[in-house]
Amino acid sequence: MTSLSTRPAFRSGQSPTTNSQSRPLAPCVKISAGVLLAEDRSTPAAVTPGSVGSVRLLGVPIRLHFTFVLLLIFLVVIGLGGNQSPASYTLFVLALIASVLLHELGHALVSSHYRIRTLEIVMYPIGGVARLERPAKPWEEFWIAVAGPAVNLAIAGVIFAILYSQNRSFNLFALTQPSSDNLADRIALGNLILAGFNLLPAFPMDGGRMLRAILSSLKSEYEATRIATWSGRMLAISMGLYGFIYMPMLAFVAFFIYLGAANEGAASRGRSLTQGIPVRAAMMTQFRTLSHGATVRDAANLMLSTSQQDFPIVHGDQVIGLLARNAVLRGMAHDGANSYVAGFMQREFPSVPPDQDLAEVLPLMAHSGACVLVMQDGRLLGLLSSDNLSQFLLLRSVGLQPSEG
Ligand SMILES: [Zn+2]
User: How far is the CA of 85 from the centre of ligand 1 (A)?
Assistant: First the structure.
């Protein structure tokens, strides 16, 4: 299940205060040790935005991105005019969707072999994307990537073997005339195309991940990522140009490849800049907290006088909640400025320990967009927000070496 565990009460200590404290508190993300990362890494907020539905296969939630739903509608509309029966056409489309799904489950199966959980599989127009709970090491990534296309090759192989055993001849040209008779042939061919397309050595395709894994053994991960991202962009641009002239559908695919390459590139750059660095190196240590007895007005004033957007709510030494900017606005609109922050704070908040690898926290931050609290033994040490994380990445990219402790 996707849920965040609640840390009910930490030790209570001094009375709450709105003054800045010597203890570091970071606005944004409160990462309590192990709460998110050790107990259950999938959080409700970890659902990819724009995706709908959730069917579980082998324990992995499968979601459809809205662009995939649009593609399905598009396929149904263009398929209605064809000369094959609606049943055969529907079967063909369903078989291809199932093939993409099996491809992703192939990734999920191999990643579970490396003890990496798959948080969700999201179906996009250019295929599925299996989102993993932590980044894989280069050779793990290689074998996880190989698994997807291997599934499609296996499906095609099995279908061809069955057709061969029935002494059926395979005529490639006949496949341009879809009929119920060559349905199996077309599903096999579709799987060959899926495998071939995914083996292209460019991000975000599986071939791009394999390329990066191989390059990582020769160069730094950063360089390897840069090359795989570059080849993804080049592929997308050439496909896009060709598509605009001859095949508009290809330009559509190229657009998603370009976006995917850019996203993968940014995520991998983020990973290579944060891998092996503890959360404590990037967390905000100068921050304000609010006492549980503070009002929404106090929170609003603090938001104006500081650059902080999220405030840990404390009762003595104990953190009892997290107040985000939206909650302040909601509180103000609903109950007015004199209402108590305790009524609007988030009682279950993400927290991580200070020694947690920053690279492992990135996916959490990217998907929750929230602030994570950095905590140890119930004590608040700092805040990790997307703002200060961006600052940290920016400084790292120009050569900052994180200090210890
Ligand atoms: Zn794949």
Answer: 31
Domains contained in the chain, number: 2
The identity of residue 255, as a single letter, is F
**pLDDT, tens digit, 9 for 90 and up, residues 139-175:** 888 999 999 999 999 999 999 888 888 877 666 666 6
C-alpha 364 to ligand 1 mean position (Å) = 22
pLDDT digits (tens, 9 = 90+) for 201-256: 887 788 988 998 898 888 877 788 888 888 888 888 988 898 888 877 788 778 87
Q: Ligand 1 centroid vs 214 CA: distance in angstroms? A: 17
Centre of ligand 1 from the C-alpha of residue 108, in Å = 10
Note the pTM of the prediction, 2 decimals: 0.62
Q: Are residues 155 and 251 in the same domain?
A: yes
Buried residues in 145-182 as b, exposed as e (16+ CB within 10 A): bbbbbbbbbebbeebbeebeeeeeeeeeeeeeebeeeb
Q: How far is the CA of 331 from the centre of ligand 1 (A)?
A: 45
79 CA distance to ligand 1 middle (Å): 26
Q: How far is the centre of ligand 1, averaged over its atoms, from the C-alpha of 96 (Å)?
A: 14
Check residue 180 and report its DSSP letter: S
Residue 133 in any domain: the answer is: yes
Number of CB atoms found within 10 A of residue 404's CB: 7
Residues 287 and 259 occupy one common structural domain: no
Q: Tell how far the Cα of 183 is from the centroid of ligand 1, in angstroms.
A: 24
Structure-token pair, residue 124: 């996009």
Say if residue 120 is in the same domain as residue 255. Answer: yes
Q: Which domain holds residue 312?
A: 29-41+281-397
Do residues 185 and 223 share a domain?
Answer: yes
Report CA(209)–ligand 1 centroid distance (Å). Answer: 9
Q: How far is the CA of 296 from the centre of ligand 1 (A)?
A: 48
What gap in Å lies between CA 145 and CA 327, rounded to an integer?
41
CA distances from 375 to 22, 325, 382, 383 (A): 15, 21, 7, 9
Q: What distance separates the 2 farthest-apart alpha carbons in the chain?
A: 83
> Phi and psi for 41 in degrees, rounded to 5?
-85, -15
147 alpha carbon to ligand 1 midpoint, in Å? 8
Measure 197 CA to ligand 1 centroid, in angstroms: 10
Helix residue ranges per DSSP H, 247-377: 248-274, 296-305, 325-335, 358-368
